[in-house]
Amino acid sequence: MSQQPRSNIDRMVLIVAAAEQSGQLTTELLKAGFSLTVISPREGFLGFGATCLLLGIDSQRMQELLEIVQKTCGKRRQFVPAQGHLVLPEGLPPMMIEAEVGSAYVFSMEVEHFEQF
């Protein structure tokens, strides 16, 4: 039985993306042939969730990966409920503030050794 050649995994990438953008980001990365692991979302800044994606890649594909993230996870301005200790009279809608939402943070680490079983 012959084995398929294994790609050179020499870089581990952690992407922390806004939850509302992570579905599209995951789709685009899979379409481009990247393999990834999704780590459960948690509550993030201003009440918006964040999703972590973990990828092992060939460092020669790093620029391609960054272009996909940049295209998919752009920042935008949106009105969100103000959080804090401001108490409004009952029945009034929450105070809204304009905030910059969306984006992604990309962390890249060198991999000394990789095995897949």
From TrEMBL:
Protein name: Uncharacterized protein
Gene3D superfamilies found in the cross-reference section: 3.30.70.120
Entry-linked InterPro entries: CdAMP_rec, N-reg_PII/ATP_PRibTrfase_C
Pfam family, one: CdAMP_rec
UniProt cross-references to PANTHER family, sorted A to Z: CYCLIC DI-AMP RECEPTOR A
Protein's organism: Anaerolinea thermophila (strain DSM 14523 / JCM 11388 / NBRC 100420 / UNI-1)
Domain of life: Bacteria
